[in-house]
Design a protein that fits this description.
carotenoid biosynthesis, mainly alpha, 14 helices, 283 residues, globular, Farnesyl Diphosphate Synthase, 2 domains, single chain
């Protein structure tokens, strides 16, 4: 497999698993687009090990060992991921830390099924989503990585809280509860209520409190868009707007997150792209 084939295989992964991200980052120049595909494939494999692996703990350890080998300068396997990632690491000045922190976040899913506080949820969100923003900064804005660190992490917080709010039912099916107990208790709602999938005013109040936190982080995450090069502003703005629109899709569904998954329509995505183009050119 040559490097172009490897990148195309990574492209297929992002287009299959996240049409939202694929659509947003499709507007990047080719070399940078390929870098995003490789990073996404890395994150996707780590996530799939935890959610779908037959022996996820052993498989995740093997994946970390492979990354250790990669960091030491050797390609662990001649697979699309490692061939593409090796080329991407030669093109862009990546920091290894976010990659390792992402793996730590996957370990959290193996060992932690309940969250007591918002701070715990934000710590988890950094590891599984904030890290992605940090991985992408060397591709999107290599000269402003330090200045954009906090906003990239905030965007990760926002997107992961959105995932949590969209996927309450799916997570329950996996015996995972990411809604922090302190916020449930504040609204007089119990874990038993959640497990019984009680959708009432208490649940909506919990959902909206977390949605407001997500929306605050979306604002922070896009507040420094002017620090990105022109080519990167549209993809970042579009990705944030696509994800933020999920919150309104849930609201339109009457907050039914227990038995159905909220989607942003193609028409909505087209309008978001058009608005993002106008806003990114205006900055």
């Amino acid at each position: 497999m040559d490097v172009n084939q490897a990148y195309q295989a990574c492209r297929q992964i992002i287009e299959h698993h996240s049409k939202t991200f694929a659509k947003a980052f499709n507007h990047l120049p080719k070399e940078k687009r390929e870098g995003v595909w490789a990073v996404y494939a890395f994150c996707r494999l780590a996530d799939d090990i935890v959610d779908e692996g037959e022996n996820p703990e052993a498989e995740l350890k093997a994946f970390k060992d492979d990354f250790d080998t990669f960091v030491a300068g050797d390609i662990p396997e001649q697979t699309a991921l490692w061939i593409a990632l090796d080329d991407a690491f030669k093109r862009f000045d990546f920091d290894h830390t976010p990659f390792y922190d992402m793996i730590k976040g996957q370990y959290m899913d193996l060992t932690k099924k309940r969250y007591e506080s918002l701070d715990e949820v934000l710590t988890y969100s950094y590891h599984v989503a904030g890290t992605v923003g940090l991985m992408l900064l060397p591709i999107l804005s290599p000269d402003k990585k330090e200045e954009l660190y906090d906003s990239a992490v905030s965007l990760g917080y926002a997107m992961q809280i959105t995932n949590i709010l969209r996927d309450v039912g799916e997570d329950l099916d996996r015996d995972r509860i990411y809604l922090p107990r302190e916020i449930l208790t504040k609204h007089g709602y119990t874990i038993a209520d959640l497990e019984n999938r009680v959708l009432d005013d208490r649940f909506i109040a919990i959902w909206e409190e977390l949605a407001e936190i997500a929306e605050t982080h979306y604002l922070k995450g896009t507040s420094e868009l002017n620090l990105y090069p022109l080519f990167a502003r549209l993809p970042v703005k579009a990705a944030a707007s696509f994800y933020k629109a999920i919150l309104n899709a849930v609201r339109r569904n009457g907050y039914q997150v227990f038995h159905e998954r909220a989607y942003v329509t193609q028409d909505e995505k087209a309008k978001i792209i058009e608005t993002s183009i106008n806003e990114s050119h205006a900055r």
